[in-house]
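Notes to self, Imidazoleglycerol-phosphate dehydratase:
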Amino acid sequence: MSDADRTAAVSRETSETTIDVTLAVDGDGDAAVETGIGFFDHMLEAFAKHGLFDLTVQCDGDLHIDDHHTVEDVAIVLGEAFTEALGDKRGIVRYADRKVPLDEAVASVVVDVSGRPFFDFSGDFSQPYVGEFTSVMAEHFAMSLAMNAGLTLHAGVEGENAHHEVEALFKALARALDDATRVDPRRSDTPSTKGKL
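result:
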């Protein structure tokens, strides 16, 4: 990884999942995703598209059990990829907040690329499943991403349709992370009085 290209390739293998992820923070929104969960693939593709991240995800998980390990472990690896790609975070904007609507649903995300993991979530999902994706795993994805990317992340959803609520959340995550990880041309240092994030 070099700070100039802000890219990462991360792999992780456990008894539950085998995952390969590549990430380019300054991409075009191109995605090639295969997790075995159709709706989750769709959400990761939306995350890439709306964050303008180039993303590949290949996951072979224990879907004969359920979707938990696949969703959680992809978030872990994606968080590690953001950490690697951003390096010392020199020059980044650091903070961002976004609200994204999808029909009756709206999701909000406030993020600080702080290096201090923290997660808070408000709201509930209106139906327990979207296809083969367990709705509450969207919250768990955001938490696992925050813990492994070193984000302070406050998120929430409201609505009447879980498909819309989950999709709005992934899009809000993407837009907020795109905003927060952009390089501010006025800044040459790390955006912290400590001199380090």
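- Residues 5-179 form a domain with the Ribosomal Protein S5; domain 2 fold (CATH 3.30.230.40).
- The chain has one domain: 5-179.
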